[in-house]
Amino acid sequence: MGCGNSALNSKKSEKVLKAALVIQNWYRGYRARLRARLQYAVAIFESIEYADEQSQMQLSDFFSFMLENYTQIHKDDPELSNQLLENAKDRQEYLGLIEVPDSYDGPRLHFPFNFTDIALLIDAFKHQKTLHAYYVLEVLFETKKLLKQRPNFTHLKTSASKGLTICGDLHGKLDDLLLIFYKNGLPSENNPYLFNGDFVDRGRYSMEVLMILLVSFLVYPKDIHLNRGNHEDFMMNMRYGFTKEILNKYKIHGKKILQTLEELYTWIPIGSIIDNEILVIHGGISESTDLNLLHRIERHKMKSVLLPPLAGSSIEPEKKKAGAIILSGGVPSKDSSSDQLSKHEWEQIIDILWSDPRGTKGCFPNTGRGGGCYFGPDISTSILNKYHLKKIIRSHECKPEGYEICHDGKVITVFSASNYYEEGSNRGAYIRLAYGMDLEFFQHQVTTSTCYQPLHQRVNVMESSAIRILKERIIARKTDLTHAFQVRDHSKSGKLSVTQWAFSMESILGLNLPWRTLSMHLVKVDKDGYADYMTSFQDIRIEKPVKEAESAIIETLYRYRTDLQIIFNIIDSDRSGQISMEEFRKMWKLFSSHYNVQIHDSQIDELANTMDLNKDGSIDFNEFLKAFYVVHKYEKDNISNTKHSRYQ
């Protein structure tokens, strides 16, 4: 009897175990599918981010073309060239003209700043206060004056008792900076920090992040260190949001802040060297990186990545014997016969601000970003050995865990902005190091209400947002894609195999995405596996500012809208938002000539005249660009799905 019960119980236990294993395997598969969807969404965000940066870098070719040709075309109007190349003048006199009213309830700073001012700023920003323009300018002026005394590379020493915290990209993510300070302590003489570039852009609180970092630097100039990133660039700010943030927050004094900030960027050191062993730079290196030359470069001549040296300024710098790095830490001489870097010097800075490591040996162009290079483990070993260094710490790339170690431990990426693309997309991290000790990595992630949602809901939000922005890229190239589809559709059936459809998408958009996997979100596929390719454009359209305008014109202008906005913001020197019709026409001729954009001048005039509502001969270009917005059929649903995302 007992044996029978035992056998029965054994069978039940076996069934329970099998059921548990089935459930466990199903759940693992379910989680794996969710993680795969999450990775695909991140891949979309990253590919589009890099494509935007590539477009931004390609603008440098246009500006070179423009500066070389504008004077020839308009010899009586050199104003634009002056705007692009002039050195910003010290605007200290502005402070005497700015009054802080009694009604101002934000933080009031008192120069010379001390620790209390850091705490005051942080508390005010936590409560959504805005720092008055007077204090912003005072901070910028004083920071610029101090930075001008610094060498290109900051040489730092650590000890067993006094370490150093290294933070990567923050991108205006105030919550991440405050979380780091909460976990790691506020900056002080006993708690030094190195911030490795990209303080601003993309996040909504770039000004607040920048002010905390700069005030901390002014309070502890020997213990708070700043490296320049590729977004400490006034023309990058025009595309990625910081310029717009400043003009929205400081409607009266925004132009003065931008002008001062433009020059301050040029004086931020371009790297740091810790204990003569660790090179800290924002991007990376190339096979031709020359640290001796980079120590000597007059960094303040690097106005913007989009303003390469003009023809005629390509004199190569004096060659020095390779070996140990210049360790004097001296400030480069300001005496120079030119106000520009040589082409070789400019490329050296581009490489350290824009490059990315890869697992493949060698050094080749960074086609993803359009600037700098991809460098392999052999390049890292070569450069480190050449200058008697052991490691490179860099930032510049969002990593799922906030950091990544590659090239046999010789290259380390640290990225401090969590939830960079969307809520839950990545952790942030920072590094602590002390002399003779291993590097310590600390992760963090800002949490809001959405972080408590089930994983599938968070994945749905990210996936929906990623597909949304991808569809906007698709509709902007509708004419080109349609032509590519039809070329492969030999039977004129309106259908292609998913493989042919995917090949067409990649050949036109160049985003290096898993198009076959994404096809279920982007195109209707029949039971035989053929894609109805015109459904790639359903549920989305570009709003036309002129009803009679051809769709190809609308697509072209939509595609280049951000580039055009940057160009016209430069023309609009007083930041009024208004430019003359003649300025519009002149710049369009240069733009269309350089990019080979086939739109007739009369069509551009028609579009511009439509925006000139009061017929005063000038247009509000921001409104002109806003006319080219994308309309989604299910826009309300998408907005509802993403309403919890704090950073857009």
Kindly describe this structure:
By secondary structure, this protein is an alpha/beta fold. It has four domains: 72 residues; 351 residues, Purple Acid Phosphatase, chain A, domain 2 (4-Layer Sandwich); 76 residues, Recoverin, domain 1 (Orthogonal Bundle), CATH 1.10.238.10; 85 residues, Recoverin, domain 1 (Orthogonal Bundle), CATH 1.10.238. The chain is 46% helix and 11% strand. The strands form six sheets. It has a six-stranded mixed beta sheet with strand order 1-5-6-10-12-11. It comes from Octodon degus.
Main features:
single chain; 648 residues; alpha/beta; Purple Acid Phosphatase, chain A, domain 2; Recoverin, domain 1; six-stranded mixed β-sheet; five-stranded mixed β-sheet; 22 helices; 21 strands; disordered C terminus
